[in-house]
């Protein structure tokens, strides 16, 4: 990879919970001081992993390392077996450049390792990788309101519960939603780290990442998440692998304002309530910008 990339990703949610907090009864995450909604980088990476695994059918070099029911040490042992190294003999791992080859094998076979990095020192040691693709937390443009809804289920779990209900099998529950929220997230792709992990060495990794950000919500539907949609992906490409301008100055060129042309005065309820502009005149030398969504 010969270029550094910095990008702004906008996505929204309607009548759903984009990222519940398990430590708060699955309430939508928010900044307690400003009331703005939050979505973790881990949440977005999970959706990217799921999309890549689905589209590439979990075949090398697009296997997914962090996935449901995965046993990580078993994945590490595959690298040792492929390179004919005994995982129980620490001396064999440190012999020659075996340690480097084991880590490289993991990068070559698993998309999320070469993209996001991984700590693979859990028992069967496969090294550590710092990933070139990183995200900030997503933060809503405006404060969000968490709505709480009572829901019922016309069934019970056990016969004992049925006896207590005396024929009325309804059970109560709670569901939390955000009426509407537009979230802004920043992302970075480090060309030098990409060279170390092999990201984009096959010429397809980067396009897969853009495709995932554009399409992953269509394959991640759930009753709790309402309607989540990608709205903008604004990518700043640097001519130099080291970069031609500070990322924060490029991000400041992306302006998001409430749109008054349609008479919107109440709380935002759709993406059309906002206007997104990119100040692309007088860009720093060596910088180009593209709106991919």
TrEMBL record:
InterPro entries, per the entry: Cas7_Csh2/Csh2, CRISPR-assoc_prot_Cas7/Csd2
Pfam families documented for this protein: Cas_Cas7
Any one GO BP annotation for this protein: maintenance of CRISPR repeat elements
NCBIfam families: cas_Csd2, cas_CT1132
Protein name: Type I-C CRISPR-associated protein Cas7/Csd2
Organism, as annotated: Gimesia chilikensis
């Amino acid at each position: 990879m010969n270029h550094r990339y910095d990008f702004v990703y906008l996505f929204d949610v309607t009548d759903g919970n984009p990222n519940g907090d398990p430590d708060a009864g699955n309430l939508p995450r928010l900044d307690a001081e400003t009331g703005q909604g939050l979505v973790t980088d881990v949440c977005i990476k999970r959706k990217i992993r799921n999309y890549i695994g689905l589209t590439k059918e979990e075949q090398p070099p697009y296997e997914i390392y962090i996935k449901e029911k995965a046993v990580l040490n078993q994945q590490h042992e595959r690298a040792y077996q492929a390179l004919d190294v005994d995982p129980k003999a620490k001396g064999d791992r440190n012999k020659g450049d075996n340690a480097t080859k084991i880590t490289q094998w993991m990068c070559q076979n698993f998309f999320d390792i070469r993209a996001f990095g991984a700590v693979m020192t859990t028992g069967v040691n496969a090294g550590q990788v710092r990933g070139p693709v990183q995200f900030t937390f997503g933060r809503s443009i405006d404060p969000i309101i968490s709505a709480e809804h009572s829901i019922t289920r016309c069934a019970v779990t056990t016969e004992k519960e049925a006896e207590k209900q005396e024929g009325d099998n309804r059970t109560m529950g709670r569901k939390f939603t955000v009426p509407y929220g537009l979230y802004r997230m920043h992302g970075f792709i480090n060309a030098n780290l990409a060279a170390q992990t092999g990201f984009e060495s096959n010429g397809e990794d980067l396009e897969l990442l853009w495709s995932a950000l554009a399409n992953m919500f269509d394959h991640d539907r759930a009753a709790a998440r309402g309607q989540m949609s990608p709205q903008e992906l604004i990518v700043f490409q640097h001519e130099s692998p080291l970069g031609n301008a500070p990322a924060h100055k490029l991000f400041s060129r992306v302006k998001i304002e409430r749109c008054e042309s349609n008479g919107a005065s109440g709380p935002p309820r759709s993406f059309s309530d906002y206007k997104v502009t990119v100040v692309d005149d007088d860009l720093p030398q060596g910088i180009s910008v593209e709106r991919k969504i």
